[in-house]
Design goal:
The protein has nine helices and no strands. With 275 residues, the protein is mainly α. It folds into two domains: 1-114; 119-275, no CATH class. The longest helix has 35 residues, at 124-158. It is globular, with a radius of gyration of 19 Å. The two termini are 28 Å apart.
């Protein structure tokens, strides 16, 4: 299992190199090779989850080690789907290294098996996890597009065109990518929260307990709801939408990691076996 995970991490590193060569060296064919490596990587990565499930008997997303690895898989999966529409190798230069770093962080985290309390055993657990993590991955790509938009916009306004200017897509394309990721991530996050509420009601007899992670997840959801509402009704585009997506993603990161590690509650990784 450790060997498969290590090979997957290496594949993500190789894909990162090809995407960076494609972007910096202006060699589109390198991006195509990187895409094939990522495709092979997520297949092998899925195999890792299958093996771990067969060994532990549970959904392999109950520890920090497992969660970081699953986040990496979701990020690559959504990037490949996004790439089918926009054909943006430059986004691969963000997604592939991000997945590689997540896998490194996962490898450095304690590789422990956390048993879920029988009270929490439900088919809603994997459903909740899949929706939540896919939503997070979509917002991560929205964040990447937002950062690229601000870089491109700043160079256009200052009329100081560095080498990266020629590498980035147009502002219009980056704004479309940002909106596409937002429109995909928001319903996924919403379904994640709803399925989590039903799961909580089955386990604890209450849909909502104002646990720290629930509170921060609701706050993050509200931020993305405001952003989506602004884009659909007020016409927020471009720089404002990019900045808002970056701010919202910072809240999301705190919800994903900070709450688990700092604030405690039912959603800390240790709590799955302590209840």
């Amino acid at each position: 299992m450790t060997l498969l995970s290590g090979i997957t991490t290496l594949i993500y590193l190789i894909a990162s190199i090809f995407y960076l060569v494609s972007m910096i060296g202006k060699r589109p064919q390198a991006g195509g090779i990187g895409r094939w490596f990522l495709l092979g990587g997520i297949i092998l990565h899925a195999t890792c989850f299958g093996v771990r499930h067969s060994v532990t008997g549970g959904t392999p997303v109950t520890s920090l080690h497992e969660s970081l690895a699953f986040f990496a898989w979701c990020l690559i999966l959504l990037f490949l789907l996004l790439d089918l529409r926009f054909h943006l190798s430059v986004m691969g230069a963000f997604a592939a290294p991000s997945a590689f770093l997540l896998m490194i962080a996962s490898a450095l985290s304690p590789d422990i098996v956390v048993q879920i309390d029988p009270v929490l055993q439900s088919w809603l657990f994997p459903v909740h996890i899949i929706f939540a993590f896919l939503g997070n991955a979509a917002f991560a790509l929205s964040f990447g597009a937002g950062v690229m938009y601000l870089l491109q916009n700043r160079m256009l306004k200052s009329k100081r065109f560095t080498g990266i200017y020629q590498l980035l897509p147009s502002l219009d394309t980056l704004d479309k990518v940002n909106y596409t990721c937002l429109s995909v991530g928001f319903p996924l996050m919403t379904l994640g929260i709803i399925s989590g509420a039903f799961w909580a009601n089955i386990a604890w007899g209450s849909y909502w307990s104002w646990d720290p992670k629930e509170t921060w997840a609701l706050l993050t959801w509200l931020l993305y709801a405001v952003l989506l509402h602004g884009r659909l009704t007020v016409g927020w585009r471009g720089r404002r939408a990019a900045i808002f997506s970056i701010i919202a993603f910072v809240f999301l990161l705190f919800t994903f990691l900070g709450v688990n590690l700092l604030l405690g509650g039912y959603h800390t990784f240790e709590a799955f076996s302590a209840l």
